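During the reporting period the student researcher (J.K.) took over the structure-prediction task from the postdoctoral fellow and processed the backlog of single-chain submissions. One of the processed entries is reproduced below for the supervisory committee.
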Amino acid sequence: MHRTFLLATLLLAPVLAAAQSHPRQIQQFTTGWRFLQSDALGAESPTFDDSAWKSVTLPHDWSIAGPVEENAPSRATGGFFPTGTGWYRHTLTFAKLDPTKRTYIAFDGVMANSDVYCNGELLGHRPYGYVSFNYDLTPHLHVGRNTIAVRVDDSQQPASRWYPGAGTENVEIYTNAEEVELFLNDKSLGTQQRHADASPITVQIPFAPGTLKAVARTNGKAIAEDELRTAGKPARLLLSTGLSAAHLTNTPHSEATPALTPDWNDIAYVTATLVDANNTVIPDSTTVIHFATTGPGKIIAVDNGNLLDHDPFQAPTPEKDRKLYDGQDIAILRATAASGNITLTATTEGLPPATFILNTYPAKPLSIQRSF
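J.K. obtained the following C-alpha cells:
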C-alpha cells in the first residue's frame, strides 16, 4: 500500500488540564500545503525554497493521479500506480506563544515511512500508515514563521496486498435520518447531524482494513444501517437473478430462481458479481467477463450500468463480453424453446468459471386477443 494519509490537525492543550478553565483548541489546517513528488535534499529546512512546488489541499493522494504503468514497482497488488518519495511543507505563523499551553500536531495517518520536521528538527519517524499519531511542537516553535515538513517514502514495493492510493479517505453519507454514527471496526468515530439542506455529510477518516458501518437514528432510535467492507483478492464469480445474492440490497431474503418461456417479452437478468474469499464485492475491478450459454436460450444483451462505457449492448456473436463496473455486470437472457435447461457460464482469466441454470416451460396462450 502507498497511501499518504495526510490530514494535519493542531491541538493546543493546557499544560495543567485539571486546573485550566479553557478546554483545548483543535484547528485543522488542510489548505496551504506545498507538495513535491520526488526527493529533495534539505527540504526539511525552513530556508528551503519550495515556491516551485505544487499547491495541494489535504487530504491528498498523489499516487492515484498516476500514471498507471504495467512495469510500476507496485505491480498488480498496488494497482500499477506510481510509488516513490514525496515531500509536503506548510508554514505556521504565531504572533505570540502562550507559555501555559503546549502545541501538538496530529496526523490521521501517513502512508508510509514518514519523517516529520518542525523548523528543521526531526520530530519522529513512523513506518506504519494505518494509525494516527501526533508530535509535540512546543519545544521547536517560535514567534513568527514556523515550517512543518513531511517526507513520505513508499518506494519499497510491494507494500501491501491491496491498493489504497496515497491520501486520506473521504466518506460521503446520504441520509434523511436526524443523525448518523460511524463505526470503524466497531469503534465509534462520532455522530454526525443531518444537514439542514439534506446535503451529503462528508467525513474524513483514516483508512484501516475491515468494516466501516453507518447507523442512522431518529429520535434516538436506530432506523437504518449500512456498511462497507475491505475487499481482498478476487476469489470467484457469483451468478444470480436475485438482489440479495448479487449484493444489491442490505436486506437479505430468499429469492426464487425464475423460469423462462419462449415469449418474446419474457427475459431474465443474471448478475455477475466479483467477490473475494469472504464474499465481499470487489468494487474497483474492470475485469472482462465472458458470457456464454448452452441449451434453449440465448444472450440478447449485456451491460454494467456504467454511463461512460460505450461498448455495445448487443455484440454480433452469440457469446458476449463485458467489463465489470462496481464489481458487477449483467447478462439478459431469453428462452428459444419451451422445454429444457438454459446454462449460463461466466468466465474470466485466473478464476474458476461460474454457472447458472434457468428452467424453461411453455408460454400460456393469451386469454384476451389484443386489438390495435
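The committee noted the following: Residues 32 and 84 are 23 Å apart (CA to CA).
J.K. will present the remaining backlog at the next meeting.
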